[in-house]
Structure formats: structure tokens, C-alpha cells
Write a structure and sequence with these properties.
single chain
Amino acid sequence: VQLVESGGGLVQAGGSLRLSCAASGFTFDDYAIGWYRQAPGKERELVAAIGSAGSTNYADSVKGRFTISRDNAKNTVYLQMNSLKPEDTAVYYCNARRRSNASGYTYDYWGQGTQVTVSS
């Protein structure tokens, strides 16, 4: 199982970045995918998530600025980040999660993270 994030970097406030999360080794279509972030000294927080059927939810802090989408044909999830702010600076992680209805077990995979730095 692999989740590989890419697209991070340094951008000025007000700019945009698009993160990608490429998945392999599991049935991508069956999993909800989330983007989390962790800033220095802070806890990891959910930024945006997209369900297996395409439903989405966002943290209040990014609503209207970030958009999550998935391409099941490419086993990839994207996070389009617009109007970036310095407080968006963090390591961004991709997470894939599925709960088995039969066993109750939750399958939970993480990527290695990609750094996003927004300068003021």
C-alpha cells in the first residue's frame, strides 16, 4: 500500500497550489480520502475529505478556498488550494480509510506528507 503526496512548495500569500495524492496497493474506489495538515507545535487536523461516493467536507478554516476532488481512474485525489494564507503553512498528509462492514475493522493508510509554506 502506498500513498504518495506531491505538489507542495513555497508560495506567497494569495497564491495557489494543487496537491496530489497517488494511491496504489488497495481498492481505491472503496476508500474515503482525507487531507490532513500538521503545523509545528500543533496537532494534526483534518482539512478536507471526500467519500467513496464523492461527498465532501471541509474544515471551516478552508471552506471557499480549498477544493478536494478524486479521479478514480487514476487512483488520485487532489487538493486545490487557493487564496493561501500564512496560517496554511504545514505538512499536508493524505489518508485513506475504509471500515469493513463485515468485521468492523478500519483500514487506515497514510502518506509521508508534503510541505506547504506560505510566505506573507
